[in-house]
Write a structure and sequence with these properties.
Elements: E1 9-11, H1 18-21, E2 35-37, E3 42-47, E4 53-58, E5 61-66, E6 72-77, E7 83-92, E8 97-113, H2 115-118, H3 127-132, E9 136-143, E10 147-149, E11 163-165, H4 167-170, H5 175-185, E12 192-198, H6 210-217, H7 220-231, H8 233-251, E13 268-269, E14 290-299, H9 301-304, E15 308-316, E16 318-323, E17 326-332, E18 337-341, E19 349-358, E20 365-367, E21 374-377, E22 382-384, E23 390-393, H10 414-420, E24 430-434, H11 446-461, E25 467-470, H12 486-499, E26 504-507, H13 523-537, E27 549-556, E28 559-565, E29 572-573, E30 580-583, E31 591-593, E32 596-597, E33 601-605, E34 612-615, E35 625-626, E36 635-638
Length: about 650
């Protein structure tokens, strides 16, 4: 992401390397410079020999525990107040010890989501100045390794890389998370630890645990297919290939089957086996969409009988691959594609390799060394897929093929498995969540999935864990009339969820996005608003939890009056607001109406048949109403709906 390819990994089941962790007694999530949560019992755990005694010491607190038959142990130390630096010592009964230095006791925040949470400080507006003054020994940073897994990973492969804040450690850290913590550090005078677990382009369901998925947060059919993939990847890929085929025939063309074609009619020669934006002629310059690739490889009878692996190499962004018309694999993300070829697929003579590549943004196509693309035989020989290659562009505005449940960013629990499960029950003060862009296509399910996420995180990190939601920013086309909007629907799901959860906060960002860039660079405003919300929700201080909210909408005497609560100061608008709508039962009934803004209410002229009030409903609406703390959230409210203002607004 962001001009560089991050080291992201997909594994069937990730386990810590024995050699890397041989000397460890404590779980690798505990490391030098870590922050442990203050004012609550401190849970520590790890792994040693079965039944072995472990002695733990931290700031005068000492506990002895014996490992179970599997070598796992855990212990709970009494709570500590904020402070440090301390030494955490662990000793084996059989000899040997482990000491962690510079341990701080303070508040720990988990920052999670997709690319706008992952977006680094170095690329944010004003980032260079911020980085230059980043030194802070009481602000500690840790980024979870980018691992996607088909099964939960219980232990990191290497100790978590906790680092005190410095220009070097801050530069590539999450900008939103960083700015939140810097703002909090001005008023919350305790050490703060930040754990960033983010993956660009990820869907919410990728962050749910197996239990949360089974309880309704996921797709039952997809969960079953993922289980089949864990047992037999080749068989699951065959099943998935048939599902993909059915999608193509029903959504793109009922008669065209490119994976079965062998001729070149309608296909053109690939000029360069690299990202198509780099091709000498601008055939696919700035193209985001789907392209078919095909090449041929000749095998002897002996070679065709061998087990083989199709080594496709790097693909940007999503591929579905076939050999001789038989589906062999699908992948997404940065990992090179390597697919086992089922027995009986290859044949003596001509064999056809077909790869469909979907690119949804930025660059697309193959990338990396050409020699990486090959048919790897069981006897060790690699037969290069050196071409010639042919391609065919798919003339479809926005193809949306189904995503396999083991895909890293859009799978069923794949990112929970690889990036949340290894945290165990690490003590947290709160979680900041910035995600939703990748779920706009299935907006109706987002509210239920958000509910599943809340339950999931609180089941792991505590039943009252505060969760702060960054609402989607403005992105996409501006509309001069009422429109339906997937982005607006996700924003509304986020808003309503926060209002129904007292331990949750909402950060409105409808005024700091970029209609032409899904990654706006003003992360300071977002982070500082997160800090404002945290001061209210996490620390109980007076301030906005979610910004001004519509409480009631009443109609009478030819006017609709929308009353607001949770206001800081008074409502205002720099210009006459143009983004209020009155709607009936259908989208076509929506009409924009002029608005007059008062201190705590907005007045609108009545419209026949109106049953709903909408504000700022669109991908990139013009939103002009705010209070002293920030903008009013986009919303939809029924004319019969009523909510009482909270105590903070009275």
């Amino acid at each position: 992401m962001f001009g560089m390819r991050c080291a992201k990994l997909f594994v069937l089941a990730a386990l810590a390397t024995p050699t890397a962790l041989a000397a460890q007694i404590l779980d690798p999530v505990f490391a030098d410079h870590a922050v442990l949560q203050r004012d609550r019992p401190i849970r520590l755990w790890g792994r040693v020999a079965p039944q072995e005694q472990v002695d733990i010491t931290l700031q005068g607190r000492h506990r002895t525990v014996h490992a179970g038959p599997d070598g796992r142990w855990s212990v709970v130390l009494p709570a500590l107040r904020a402070g440090g630096p301390y030494r955490l010592e662990a000793r084996r009964g059989s000899g040997g010890s482990q000491s962690l230095e510079d341990i701080a006791i303070g508040d720990v925040f988990l920052c999670s989501g997709q690319s706008n949470m992952e977006f680094p400080l170095s690329k944010s507006r004003g980032g260079a100045t911020e980085i230059a003054s980043a030194a802070d020994s009481n602000l500690r940073l840790a980024t979870m390794p980018a691992v996607s897994a088909a099964l939960p990973v219980r232990r990191l492969a290497q100790p978590l890389d906790w680092r005190p804040a410095s220009p070097a450690s801050a530069a590539e850290f999450s900008a939103v998370c960083w700015y939140m913590a810097r703002a909090l550090r001005r008023t919350v005078r305790v050490p703060i630890g930040l754990i960033d677990a983010s993956w660009g382009g990820s869907t919410l369901q990728a962050w749910l645990s197996p239990a949360a998925l089974a309880a309704g947060g996921g797709d039952r059919d997809m969960i079953d297919l993922l289980a089949a993939y864990n047992r037999d990847p080749a068989s699951a890929n065959l099943t998935w290939g048939e599902r993909w085929r059915q999608w193509w025939l029903s959504e793109i063309s009922p008669t065209d089957e490119p994976w079965r074609q062998t001729g070149t009619t309608g296909w053109a020669r690939v000029p360069l086996l690299d990202l198509w934006e780099k091709w000498p002629a601008p055939v696919l310059a700035d193209f985001n969409g789907m392209v078919w690739y095909r090449t041929h490889v000749t095998l002897t009878a002996e070679q065709a009988l061998q087990a083989a692996t199709l080594d496709v190499g790097g693909v940007d962004e999503i591929d579905q691959s076939w050999v001789n018309g038989r589906p062999v694999g699908t992948g997404a993300g940065d990992e090179p594609r390597r697919y086992p070829v089922p027995a009986g697929t290859l044949k003596a003579g001509d064999n056809v390799v077909t790869v469909n590549i979907l690119d949804t943004w930025d660059t697309g196509g193959f990338y990396g060394p050409t020699e990486r693309r090959a048919l790897a035989l069981a006897n060790g020989r690699r037969i290069p897929l050196s071409g010639p290659w042919f391609y065919r562009k798919v003339d479809h505005a926005r193809p949306r093929p189904p995503r396999a449940p083991w895909h890293p960013a859009s799978g069923q629990g794949t990112l929970y498995n690889g990036m949340i499960a290894p945290l165990g029950a690490y003590g947290l003060r709160a979680m900041a969540w910035y995600q939703g862009e990748s779920n706009t296509a299935d907006r109706l399910a987002y509210g239920d999935r958000l509910t599943a996420l809340y339950r999931d995180r609180r089941a792991t990190f505590g039943p009252t864990l505060p969760i702060l939601i960054v609402q989607l920013a403005n992105f996409g086309p501006k509309a001069n009339r009422p429109v339906d909007s997937d982005w607006a629907a996700v924003r509304e799901a986020q808003r309503r969820h926060v209002l129904n959860d007292a331990n949750s906060g909402l950060v409105v960002t409808i005024d700091v996005g970029d209609p032409s860039d899904i990654h706006p660079t003003d992360k300071r405003t977002v982070g500082e608003r997160l800090a404002q919300s945290a001061l209210s929700v996490v620390y109980g201080r007076h301030g906005p939890r979610a910004g001004p909210q519509p409480m009631t909408a009443h109609e009478g005497n030819g006017r609709v009056i929308v009353q607001f609560g949770d206001i800081t100061g008074r409502l205002s608008a720099s210009t006459a607001p143009q983004s209020f709508e009155l709607c009936g039962a259908t989208q076509s009934s929506c009409r924009r109406v002029p608005a007059s803004v008062g201190a705590k209410s907005v007045g609108l002229p009545s419209q026949p048949g109106a049953t709903r009030v909408r504000y700022c409903w669109g991908d990139s609406p013009a939103c002009d109403v705010r209070d002293a703390a920030g903008p009013v959230s986009p919303f939809e409210i029924s004319l019969t709906q009523a909510r009482r203002p909270t105590a903070a607004s009275r």
